[in-house]
Amino acid sequence: MMKSKLFGLALMGLAMGMSLPAMAGGPGVYTVEGNNGEPDSGYKGTLTIVQTSKDTFKLTWNIAGERYDGFAIGDERVMAASFTSKGSSGTALLVEDDDNKGAYKSIWAFKGDTHLGVEMIVPKK
């Protein structure tokens, strides 16, 4: 339920053309902790976000030595991303975490998956 509510709010904001002040971290290096939506599937890693234009970003995840390359549209508050790794592709939605300044909550899935993964993305210190 939380995932669908988060997704719905993000889409509604984008559809309404809302321009909210950027509070999340935007470009930078982050620690990532998540799971792929299945029991005992936790993982940790890093995410680097590079802004490539006013509304586009390059994302690079490094999870357990595996690299995932992504491209996102949006702003520092909400990003819709596609990503690839070793011939597989997927989609992610990163949304500012109101409870953790500079951080994001993310949901993601590989193409063809029937479950969502989740991530907490926190600025690296």
From TrEMBL:
Keywords, ordered alphabetically: Signal
* Signal peptide (from-to): 1-24
Superkingdom of origin: Bacteria
Quote the protein name from its UniProt record.
Answer: Fibronectin-binding protein
Q: Which organism is it from?
A: Microvirga aerilata
